[in-house]
Specification:
- By secondary structure, the chain is of the alpha+beta class.
- The chain is 34% helix and 21% strand.
- The protein has helices spanning 48-66, 108-116, 120-127, 136-146, 150-155, 164-173, 180-183, 198-204, 244-251, 310-318, 328-333, 373-399, 416-426, 438-451, 457-461, 476-493, and strands at residues 4-10, 14-20, 26-33, 45-46, 73-80, 86-89, 99-100, 159-162, 177-178, 189-190, 195-196, 213-214, 224-225, 237-243, 260-264, 268-275, 286-291, 299-306, 343-345, 363-365, 405-409, 429-433, 466-470.
């Protein structure tokens, strides 16, 4: 009998493969970064061929570290950076352009034109999404309109579109497939039907022939079997797929309505399970598919999306060279008692939830000669926490039930000082599980459920364990003064980009 389930986690900055056993423990893993390409201001791209190359490398390395073969693996789940858009040739498999990453803002004009034409309400009602540069649909439209020959090739049926999950499933199995969580981030799928919508396709002028089949996030029928000549060296069911934030929600066992988690990765993403009900936000959140397991009805979520979290720390390291590593940010930030009255609002790709302002740009305000490097580093960490508070307040307003505790996960949660700041700024208990990389775990759960490796949701709940809890340590008046300053700083970011 196979002993393990494999997860492939293709994120914004790196790809990893992880092997999990039945207890949800990590048996082996490997991770490789891929290049971040910035052709011009506001544009962010990846090389799809490099992502596939890194995927093959981490699969082989993980199997080697664990000393296992394909026969030891029961199933494979995939999780991925969402909204990032890839077009490739149906016949050769060659990408026809670099992937346009979710952070990219080049589609701002398309979104504004669609809004001016009165289409915003249609997308919000059917897809649960605002007209924003974040999503895949406008990125597809931009590629077809701006890259020579692509519109004609798409109309002729020679091109395929996919988010990164589809790109990897296609290479692993030869099948062109996505799941509802990723499809719900394209602006092309209707939430009510979980199907590509003719009206939305027509508005964006996107041929249906580009699009993958939509299959459940955990699919007992399998998406396909891995090719025997591929990196796994055997025919293994690929049968789980979840966008990264939905995967983390599954990995955190947020299976009941009202349960929420926050993931601290490149961006920051909070999801609140709303059950089988489609809840449209009144406070700047997204309505999205949380997961669909087999033939069960889909479960939906409200989501607050923040573009810059770990990426802000990366910016301090790579662009400003204020720190030499992400880990150093914790030590430096703790060397001062506060941020000295300065605020960093990292609106480098505009502001996401709850504002959805593509005209915003980043600011560093409240500077005096007293401010030094440590204050700016601390302000960067605080920016992650303040953005999370804004999302949490929107979520509380939409749900009507204030969250008492927040489950957290993702790479940045290893920063214990950041987690204490988060508890202080929220005034809410913060809980980190033993397995903090719940994104990969959620993808493994989806695949393992499909093949019966895990029997049901209760067997998954039994695996979840608390690693550490943080309680708020500051008073309410101090908390509110800090947040009021943050709101003033956010106001300074608006209307920076002229129409």
């Amino acid at each position: 009998m196979p002993k393990y389930v494999a997860a492939i986690d293709s994120g914004t900055t790196s790809t990893r493969c992880m092997l999990f056993d039945h207890s949800g423990s990590v048996v082996a893993s490997d991770q490789q970064e891929h290049q971040q390409i910035f052709p011009r201001s506001g544009w962010v791209e990846h090389n799809p061929a490099e992502i596939w190359q890194r995927t093959q490398q981490v699969i082989r390395a993980t199997l080697d570290k664990a000393g296992v073969t394909a026969a030891d693996i029961a199933a494979i789940g995939i999780t991925n950076q969402r909204e990032t858009t890839i077009l490739w040739d149906r016949h050769t498999g060659e990408p026809v352009h670099n992937a346009i990453v979710w952070q990219d803002t080049r589609t701002d004009r398309i979104c504004k034109e669609l809004e001016a034409a009165g289409h915003g309400e249609t997308f919000y009602r059917k897809a649960g999404l605002p007209l924003a540069t974040y999503f895949s649909g406008p990125k597809i439209r931009w590629l077809l309109d701006n890259v020579d020959g692509l519109r004609a090739r798409a109309d002729a049926g020679d091109l395929l579109f996919g988010t990164v999950d589809s790109w990897l499933i296609w290479h692993l199995t030869g099948e062109h497939i996505t799941d509802p969580t990723n499809a719900s981030r394209t602006m092309l799928m209707a939430l009510e039907t979980l199907a590509w919508d003719d009206e939305l396709l027509s508005i964006l002028e996107i041929p249906r022939s580009l699009l993958p089949k939509i299959r459940p996030s955990s699919d007992p029928r399998f998406y396909g079997l891995t090719r025997s000549d591929g990196p796994l060296g055997g025919e293994i069911p690929v049968c789980g797929a979840l966008g990264d934030q939905q995967a983390a929600t599954v990995g955190q066992n947020c299976f009941s309505p009202g349960e929420a988690k926050n993931t601290y990765g490149t961006g920051c993403f909070m999801l609140l399970n709303t059950g089988e009900e489609i809840v449209h936000s009144r406070n700047g959140l997204l309505t999205t598919v949380c997961y669909q397991f087999g033939e069960n009805r889909p479960v939906f979520a409200l989501e607050g999306s923040i573009a810059m979290a770990g990426a802000t720390i990366q910016w301090l390291r790579d662009n400003l060279q204020l720190i030499s590593s992400a880990a150093e940010s914790e030590t430096i930030a703790q060397s001062v008692d506060d941020a000295g009255g300065c605020y960093l609002v990292p609106a480098f790709s505009g502001l996401y939830a709850p504002y959805w302002r593509s005209d915003a740009r980043g600011v560093l305000v409240g500077l005096t000669r007293y401010i030094n490097r440590a204050h700016i580093v601390r302000a960067a960490l605080e920016s992650i926490c303040y953005q999370t508070r804004e999302v949490l307040e929107a979520m509380n307003a939409d749900s009507g039930v204030p969250l008492k505790t927040l489950k957290v996960d993702g790479g940045a949660t290893v920063n214990n000082f950041l987690m204490q700041l988060q508890a202080d700024i929220l005034g809410t208990e913060v809980i980190r599980p033993v397995v903090a990389e719940t994104t990969s775990l959620g993808a493994a759960y989806a695949a393992g459920l499909a093949v019966g490796y895990w029997e049901n949701l209760e067997s998954l709940r039994a695996n979840w364990q608390v690693d550490r809890r943080w309680q708020p340590r500051i008073g309410e008046s101090q908390r509110e003064r800090g947040f009021a300053g943050w709101k003033k700083a956010v106001a300074r970011t608006l209307d920076w980009v002229e129409p």
